[in-house]
Amino acid sequence: MLRQTFLASLLATAPVFAQRCDSVIPILPPKNVTVPPTNGTAGHNGTTFLISARQFTPEPDYPPTPAPPTIPLYVHVVAGSNARKDGYLTEQEVIDQVNIIHDLFKPRGISFRHDASMRQWVVNASWAGPDRDFNEMKEALHKGDYRTINLYIRNITIRDYGGSCSNPWTQEEIWNVPFPRRLLQDGCVINTETLAGSGHSFMNMGKTAVHEIGHWFGLFHTYEAGTVRDGVNPPNPCWAGNPGDEVKDTPRCKNVSPAGQCNMTQNTCPEPAGEKPVYDAVWNYMSESSDACYQNFTVGQQERMYFIYDKYRAGETRG
Ligand SMILES: [Zn+2]
Question: For the Peptidase M43 pregnancy-associated plasma-A domain, which residue ranges apply (predicted)?
Answer without folding.
Answer: 203-306
